């Protein structure tokens, strides 16, 4: 995590600038005087993750980004935006004067770092990624409908594949030259680097069927596969 790396860097390279040290001590003293603001910030920061690492994962062609990753990213962005709200609502006039008296520019730093661009990023992700539907469908990442006609068409084709392949499997079973006497109809399956196989789920296959399937056997666990 980013916080752990930062803390380790502070221990390896201690701060020696007296002004920075005094500023941090003043900040600690300020937060001890306003526990409600400190508690709100602590609770909000729990949802803030290592954004650069997340962006690197999203941008990597070898990484697999799930709906959970996008949900975490959105929650992180919303938490960062909420920090400004905490300062806006939680810092009273008295506390603002105290900040000014102690020369603490905490609110200014937050406002300069947490800008409206984060709000734009949040709206952009919400408008493009369908997080909830990705969970329901079990997909890793799903773009919302009506954003791209080509994607919508490809999605329709992809979602229609199970029915299409089931029909292909039934046609293949019907075209075999020998009878398949099984309690459950075999399935045509695809195994990477092996090819298309016929999968039988019966515990015991009849002798007649075994004769018809000689030299085709490929077994995995308790399931028998036969090359087709």
Automatic annotation (TrEMBL):
| An example molecular function term from Gene Ontology annotations | mismatched DNA binding
Domain DNA mismatch repair protein MutS core residue range list = 1-117
| One GO BP annotation of this record | mismatch repair
Pfam families xref list:
MutS_III
Gene3D superfamilies per the record? 1.10.1420.10
Annotated SUPFAM superfamilies: DNA repair protein MutS, domain III (SSF48334)
Would you name any one GO CC term?
nucleus
- What domain of life does the native source organism fall in? Eukaryota
Q: Which family does it belong to?
A: Belongs to the DNA mismatch repair MutS family.
**What is the name of the protein in this document?**
DNA mismatch repair protein MutS core domain-containing protein
Q: Which organism is it from?
A: Aegilops tauschii subsp. strangulata (Goatgrass)
Q: What is the organism lineage in this UniProt record?
A: Eukaryota, Viridiplantae, Streptophyta, Embryophyta, Tracheophyta
């Amino acid at each position: 995590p980013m916080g752990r790396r930062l803390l380790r860097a502070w221990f390896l390279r201690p701060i020696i600038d007296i002004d920075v040290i005094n500023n941090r001590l003043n900040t600690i003293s300020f937060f001890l005087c306003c526990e409600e603001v400190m508690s709100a910030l602590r609770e909000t920061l729990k949802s803030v993750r290592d954004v650069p690492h997340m962006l690197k994962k999203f941008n990597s062609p070898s990484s697999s980004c799930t709906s959970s990753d996008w949900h975490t990213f959105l929650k992180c962005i919303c938490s960062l935006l909420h920090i400004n709200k905490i300062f806006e609502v939680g810092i009273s006039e008295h506390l603002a004067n105290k900040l000014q008296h102690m020369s603490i520019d905490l609110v200014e730093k937050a406002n300069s770092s947490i800008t409206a661009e984060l709000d734009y990023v949040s709206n952009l992700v919400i408008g493009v990624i369908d997080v909830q539907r990705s969970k329901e469908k079990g997909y890793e990442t799903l773009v919302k409908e009506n954003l791209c006609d080509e994607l919508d068409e490809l999605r329709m084709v992809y979602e229609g594949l199970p029915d299409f392949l089931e029909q292909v499997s039934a046609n293949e079973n019907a075209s075999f030259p020998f009878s398949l006497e099984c309690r459950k109809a075999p399935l045509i399956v695809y195994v990477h680097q092996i090819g298309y196989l016929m999968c039988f789920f019966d515990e015991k296959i009849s002798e007649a069927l075994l004769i018809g399937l000689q030299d085709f056997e490929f077994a995995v666990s308790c399931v028998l596969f036969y090359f087709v």
